[in-house]
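Dear colleagues,

For the upcoming journal club I promised to circulate an example of a predicted protein-ligand complex. I picked one with adenosine-5'-diphosphate because it came up in last month's discussion. The inputs are reproduced below in full, followed by the predicted structure.
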Amino acid sequence: MKINIKENTLELMLGDITKQATEAIVNAANGTLLGGGGVDGAIHKAAGPELLVECKRIRKGLLKGELLSTGKAVMTGGYSLPAKFVIHTVGPVWQGGANDEERLLSDCYRNSLQLSLDNNINSISFPSISTGVYRFPVKPASEIALRSILEFLDQNHLGKVIMMLYSERDFDVYQSSLKKLL
Ligand code: ADP
């Protein structure tokens, strides 16, 4: 499913984000930036060891040894990935919904898109942030993700945004949420 928002496009796709050749792909990282399971592990594996070296450098330098806060985003190279850049953002862990999870998830999408815009990146792919190990229910997560992307594309000229879903079930949920939002 593909739609136009002013001079931008948003497309829902089913597949592996590590194979995506958009200029940037987004990693659902954790605050340590040291890699992990799920999409994070897959991205580090496909990018090769240099990605971890750059992530460690960002932790020491830009982040002064602190964790990357939930909702924030930083950018690295893509190394052996087809994508030139990886934008690492930390999704909220689902704790029932009363701990600001909605706003923090929305921040992940908005801050990643803003970072792309600031770096003249014209195409970006997102995974379904927080809906794996972090247990955010897919239906509300899909509504927040798509609403955040649509709002951003309505106000900015970015180019192409892909939501890369990893299961048919997730794809169907995102598709019905998008239809509902339009
Ligand atoms: P989080 O910790 O933010 O929940 P996960 O990596 O556990 O992150 O899951 C986020 C989403 O990424 C899940 O929907 C998972 O199925 C999906 N995912 C895992 N591997 C890939 C991949 N290679 N490409 C795209 N999506 C993926």
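Two points we might discuss: The chain is about 40% helix and 20% strand. The first strand starts at residue 2 and ends at 5.

See you all on Thursday,
B. R.
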